[in-house]
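Much of our argument rests on the idea that a fold can be written as discrete symbols. The record that follows shows the chain in one-letter code together with its fold in token form.
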Amino acid sequence: MLFISGMSVKSINAIENLRDICEGYLPGKFELDIIDISQNPELASANHIIATPTLIKKEPAPQKIILGDLSNIKKVLNALDISPK
């Protein structure tokens, strides 16, 4: 789940970066839910979101949380336990 706050530059960059990573490294093996906390504040509260953009990977375990626009691909891949190509 990628939590964003409106369509700010950071939000748009996070969405594009995450889609590029998923399509490039996990083609056909990912499900991406984008949640705008300005439209769904209850989901932000339920998931303890205090900053955006925030990515929460729930499966496979363990759960991982990454903050920011996901522009550092190496750090994102490492945090998600995905081997770089």
